Fold this sequence. Notes:
Layout: H1 2-23, E1 27-32, E2 37-40, H2 42-48, H3 52-55, H4 60-63, H5 73-82, E3 86-88, E4 109-116, E5 123-130, H6 132-145, H7 149-155, E6 159-164, E7 169-172, H8 174-180, H9 184-187, H10 199-210, E8 219-224, E9 230-242, E10 245-254, H11 256-277, H12 284-314, H13 316-319, H14 321-344, H15 350-371, E11 383-385, H16 387-402, E12 406-411, E13 418-421, H17 423-439, E14 445-456, H18 458-463, E15 470-479, H19 486-491, H20 509-519, E16 523-529, E17 533-543, E18 567-571, H21 575-587, E19 591-595, H22 598-605, E20 613-617, H23 625-632, E21 640-645, H24 648-652, H25 654-657, E22 662-666, H26 671-683
Parallel strand pairs: 12-14, 18-19, 18-20, 20-21, 21-22
Antiparallel strand pairs: 1-2, 1-5, 3-4, 4-5, 6-7, 6-10, 8-9, 9-10, 11-13, 13-17, 14-15, 15-17, 16-17
Amino acid sequence: MKQRRVDLISSDRDKAEDAILDAINAGLIVLDRSERVTHWNAWMEAASGHSPSFAQGKLVTDIFSGVDLKRLTPAIQAALTSGASTIVTHAINPSLLPLKTRSKTLLLHDITVTPVGASPVAGCLMLITDVTMAVKRERYLRDRQNARYDAVVANAADVIITVDEEGLIQFANPAALSQFGYSNAELLGKSAAELFETRDEWRGTLQGALANSPSGQPIDLIARRKDGTPSYLEASASRWTSGTRSFVTVILRDVNGRRATDAALRKSETEARSAAAALTELNRTLEQRVQERTAQLMQTEDALRQSQKMEAIGQLTGGIAHDFNNLLQGITGGLDLVKKRVAQGRFSELDRFISGAMASANRASALTHRLLAFSRRQPLAPTAVQVNPLLASMEELLHRTLGEHVHLELVTAAGLWLTKCDPNQLENAVLNLVINARDAMPDGGTLTVETQNSQLDSAYAALHQDIECGQYVCISVKDTGTGMSAATIAKAFEPFFTTKPLGRGTGLGLSMIYGFAKQSGGHANIHSELGTGTTVKLYLPRYNGDVEEADLIPDLSDVQSAHTNETVLVVEDEFVVRELIVEVLKELGYSTLEAEDGPASLKILQSQQRVDLVISDIGLPGLNGRQIVEAARVTRPTLKVLFMTGYAENAAMAAGFLEPGMSMITKPFAMEALASRVREILEK
Length: 684
């Protein structure tokens, strides 16, 4: 009788344990020391199609016959033999076991194998976690991020080249052409080893990258320019593949200036030591001179530290070179096919290849906008925005982003005011806030996106830095998730701060949102407590104007041609850009003049030559664009100017930079847009 009572108690305890395991929203498999299944919960039955009774007593390899479990088997053995816990995942396609979601699609998952009981362990527990939505979201965000890298490589101060397995150059950025003194046509296909005096070091760098065993430290190389002069460079390399081929992207940093600074510092230190040895023989005047020399050395050291700091910042460009080559392939590959089809006389597919190359180029342009958002130097394109219709157009996207376990409520205020901001950046801000809110509700919940008119008074403005009292359009994103502590809120808007696990977040989302709000003249804040959810509010200033119709860029054939003898001077140090602009202007009937730098342009402007308009890059060697115009307006006070800039900060400060008769256009721009601006300026 006593044994029967014990058996009943044990049976009841087993049923309770099974009920607990079945209630968990994750897969649970318990194995004994012989690696056979002792527990198999309801989640596993739904995902695998195998019942607990079928799985009981079997090996995992028997249940999932024919499945490659070479990544899972060592983890199970480690848990049983050494008591080690292991997370098993697949970097490319997390689907170790053939499991399916409720919609019968492939379920992406991680598996954590944990020992059960003290040593010696009684068995192990396999925890299967659904990461389907997280992986899809990460892929979606990664695809959007890929467009960032084109503009960085094109404008990088560092030399960036790509070579194939034979060491032949396949790509070189503008800095490479400037550094080595060769044209692009001369560099492409050339053996990169021919550029270096230190060829053994170069070959070691290349071979190490191809073998995926880089040194971890930059390699010092000595290059020989086309004109025979030497150049000292530091090389960092990384390998990537395209199909069956391997390539190596090499970042080469010019360290000639640093070497000169080091030499000067060593010389100064030697002189200081000599002066110190004779210090007892010198009078007070000499002692004063030694002190002055010491002060000069300290200034030199400070300058060197600052130089090294700037070099460290420059290393950021190397980190993105690998992914950036994907976008380069879209541009160079499309143009290469266009060239081949033209040579073959096959013109029917040209539009498709050109469109592909243009799409990659446009994604490169978007890179500059996204990279500079958190630094608050982003050239926004503000326009009058009706926030309610904008959010309504996003509702479907937000539903897909949140998934089924989070309920979305969109609450829009009647009579909502207009605001003026960049609508694309506002969409990005809302999407980032929604993704953060979803991640804070792992077990589901309610997310509310609400709009309202808001009046911020002087008391509120006094409590918040850099905000003025007045009327604002408020967009709030509220979740019912885990919430944040006061310490987390204090750091939430800082760049690179994140509470997400490693690899799940960059820490730039909220800082970019804060930068967008401040640059738009508004404000962002967070209200949250642990366990009660979080509300993030964006305040954008009220706009009292009317809704503007979007300007359409005309086709080049629709742009009004030049009037009689109208002459345009193009000042641009980049030959390809200057050539394209001149060609477009000639096609429209303008007389054109060219100059590659400030002194050459001033020779023209200080002559009797007719010039109706100057198109000039702002950043030029020697004299910049603004200095050229100021010098020219001494004799040509009504000279009309269109500045070009590829640097976002110049575009952001245009209002204080430009004087009457001056306009600005931001690179990259469509040639049709440039032609339209030229005609508009000349007709004013």
